[in-house]
Amino acid sequence: MQSSLVRSASGNHITTPMQIALAIVLAASTLLLAMARTPEPAYAVGCTAPNCDGYNPNSMGCDAIGTTLDSRTATGSHVVELRYSSTCATTWARNTNLNASGQNLQAVFNRINPTKNDNVSGYTSSGQRVYTLQWNRVAGSTSRACGLGDIAPPNICTGYR
């Protein structure tokens, strides 16, 4: 079997078709490896347990990775959620405006054993939220979230969890 030779444009390097094919495969593999780099984490939190106590769960990133332990909805008005993040080891109250127009909302957090109470209020547009600060989830403690809005019923609470 005879191998054909290919002369480079400069004329001083002779390459076989097999060497050219190998060079193409190596270049393609390098390109694919560069494109398949390890992705960044979806969301980085600004604190980790137990150092998240007393911070805003939204600005610290804990809300983005948190889960809802319990929620209550005031139809057409707002939804109150007791939220928890295992990464931040905290719970907090979140109140979301469901009304098509703006309204004043208040989010209230209550924890027993040991006692911790917090509340925050603000004017919100449709879909906007108010958050209490987040508090460490202490072993043996239970927490609930309450919310008030301009539209009846004015006060709804989750159960203690």
Structural notes for this entry:
With 161 residues, this protein is mainly beta. It folds into 2 domains: 6-35; 62-157, Sandwich (Immunoglobulin-like), CATH 2.60.40. The chain contains 2 helices and 11 strands, in the order ββααβββββββββ. It has helices at 17-35, 62-65; strands at residues 6-7, 14-15, 67-74, 78-85, 90-97, 103-112, 116-124, 129-131, 135-136, 142-149, 155-157. Strands 3, 4, 5, 8 and 9 form a 5-stranded antiparallel beta sheet that branches. Residues 35-42 have low confidence and may be disordered.
In a nutshell, what does this entry contain?
With 161 residues, this protein is mostly beta strands. It contains two helices and eleven strands. The chain folds into two domains: 6-35; 62-157, Immunoglobulin-like (Sandwich).
